[in-house]
Amino acid sequence: xxxxxxxxxxxxxxxxxxxxxxxxxxxxxxxxxxxxxxxxxxxxxxxxxxxxxxxxxxxxxxxxxxxxxxxxxxxxxxxxxxxxxxxxxxxxxxxxxxxxxxxxxxxxxxxxxxxxxxxxxxxxxxxxxxxxxxxxxxxxxxxxxxxxxxxxxxxxxxxxxxxxxxxxxxxxxxxxxxxxxxxxxxxxxxxxxxxxxxxxxxxxxxxxxxxxxxxxxxxxxxxxxxxxxxxxxxxxxxxxxxxxxxxxxxxxxxxxxxxxxxxxxxxxxxxxxxxxxxxxxxxxxxxxxxxxxxxxxxxxxxxxxxxxxxxxxxxxxxxxxxxxxxxxxxxxxxxxxxxxxxxxxxxxxxxxxxxxxxxxxxxxxxxxxxxxxxxxxxxxxxxxxxxxxxxxxxxxxxxxxxxxxxxxxxxxxxxxxxxxxxxxxxxxxxxxxxxxxxxxxxxxxxxxxxxxxxxxxxxxxxxxx
Length: 465
What we know:
Layout: E1 30-33, E2 39-42, E3 57-63, H1 71-87, E4 91-97, H2 100-114, E5 120-124, H3 125-134, H4 142-148, E6 161-162, E7 165-166, E8 168-170, E9 174-181, H5 182-188, H6 196-208, E10 212-214, H7 222-235, H8 240-246, H9 254-268, H10 281-289, E11 293-299, E12 319-322, E13 337-340, E14 343-347, H11 355-368, H12 371-381, H13 391-397, H14 401-410, E15 416-417, H15 426-440, H16 446-464
Parallel strand pairs: 3-4, 3-5, 10-11, 13-15
Antiparallel strand pairs: 1-2, 5-14, 6-7, 8-14, 9-11, 9-12, 9-13
Helix pairs in contact: 1-11, 7-9, 9-16, 15-16
């Protein structure tokens, strides 16, 4: 989801807009009678101007920080909400929490079609935000970024940019690779694999020891696809997913099918927990937390769970992290890693019609996207910065040995690639999910799965012409 954490400067910005007005009354001249019956006049002073109260208004924030494992990020969001409400007169935020998959694949699609888009919403940059922006549904926030002086402070706004205009902001960055139980490795005399053949041997060794080699929870298709995506990027090259959209590569190509075959082979050999299609993402993590599974393929955001008081707290200091090893006959850069800045917040185009809402969006962006929040996201939530952060501040703040190990892995990555669902059209993403679950459930073969995906890909490519 890059190499190492980059430098960045924090800017303090503009105060929020307040609507004020004043009223006055004209004083009347009244005669005043003196003892000698001489009439004089006196003037009353005008009343002091009273500020006009801001008109109350409500805005909706659609977020996906739901559930126990996202409580840290939700707490940070609540702090930003409270601060923004305090800065913008009359503002009340309504928080609408929705599961990430439901939000992306159901709620937002329907709302974009109907025109009832939340004012602020959790979004994916590419292809979602780009599609919605081209349809005129998302707010161009380029002027706001220029005003706040932060447009050049992000590591990569590519997924959120259309024709030079920015339509959303990544909340953080992430990468996907293998978490492993260091204590188990040490007890069994195992080493981190450096080649794919060594990795295959490691999986079989762990299986024979009665443990689950790789934690699994495939009820949501995106979870097992973290593995498959990395596999086809090894077998066919880190840039192959982009080639599907141009027709320069096909899902039915032998080197792509090889990745699906590898995944199916791991399922057949019992390297995952049985019944994984009925298990949630949280179940996958529980397998690793309680020691049933020795390794877990997950995103760097999971690192926050291995802290005192968290679900994986008993593994503090016992978890390591390594990149998927190089394939002997793989294509492309075999040190490449999936790194992403594709998840964040977008804003409804309708906001531009309301000065109060526009002021609120500006304040929200200022309060959420700054150096302090980026470092807090890294330290408290395990989310890599999406903005350029002062390395000295990072070094002073990050004490967690696992996060330091993750940073070390990233320094050895020469090339990175985005997750497949940030590249291929939404219909293709859906079909990939259907096929990986059918493959895991032994309802299709790697070849047939690839054919089904390629069919949808070709339809999407044709409609884009």
